[in-house]
Amino acid sequence: MEHKQNDTSVLFLKKKEGRVYHCGSMTAIFKADENETANKYSISEWWLEPYSTGPGAHQHEANDEVFYGISGVTSVLVGETWLDIEPGDFLRIPAKTRHDFANNTSEKCAVLNFFIPGGFERNMPAIVKWFESNQP
C-alpha cells in the first residue's frame, strides 16, 4: 500500500482517487487508512456491479463498521435482517455482528464505509488474490 500522507497531513482526494482494489464484482477504493489516521479508522468506498453479491456473511471481533449510502441501493445484511441502504442513509454495525452486503438491482451501487478502529486495509491484497483465484 502506497501512502503519500501521514496522520498529520491534510488529505484531499478527488472522485475515484485512492488505493483501488478489484474484488470480483466489487471495487474498493480506500480513501484513508492506518497510515493517515494513526490506525483510528479507515474509510473506503465499496462499489458493486448490478446483481452481484458482496464478501459473504462475516463479523469483526473488535471493529465497528459504518455504512453511508452514496449511489444506488445497497442491500446490507445485519444479523438476520436485510436493509436497503439508499444515498444518504446511515447504518452502524457494532463489533461481533454478522453482516454482508449485495446489489440486488440493475444499477451499480456504492456505500462509504468507516471501519473503526482501522487496520482492515492490511487484508486487501490477500482479499484481491482470493477473488482472482475464485472467479466464476
Features:
136 residues; mainly beta; 6-stranded antiparallel sheet; 2 helices; 10 strands; 10% helix
- Oligomer designation: single chain
- The helix content, as a percent range, equals 10-25%
Order of helices and strands: EEHEEEEEEEEH
Mean pLDDT: 91
Q: Count all strands and give the number.
A: 10
- Name the overall outline: globular
Measure the end-to-end span: 27 Å
The major beta sheet can be summarized as: 6 strands, antiparallel
> What does the radius of gyration come to?
14 Å
What is the count of DSSP helices, taking H or I runs of 4+ residues? 2
Sheet-strand content, in percent, reads 35-45%
Structural class, please? Answer: mainly beta
List low-confidence stretches: none
* Biggest sheet strand line-up: 1-2-3-10-5-8
In short:
The chain starts with 18 loop residues before the first strand and ends with a helix.
Describe the protein.
This protein has helices spanning 34-37, 124-133; strands at 19-23, 26-32, 42-48, 52-53, 64-71, 74-78, 81-85, 90-93, 99-103, 109-116. It is mainly beta and 136 residues long. It has a 6-stranded antiparallel beta sheet. Strands 4-9-6-7 form a 4-stranded antiparallel beta sheet, with no helix packed on it. The two termini are 27 Å apart.
Write the layout of secondary structure elements.
Layout: E1 19-23, E2 26-32, H1 34-37, E3 42-48, E4 52-53, E5 64-71, E6 74-78, E7 81-85, E8 90-93, E9 99-103, E10 109-116, H2 124-133
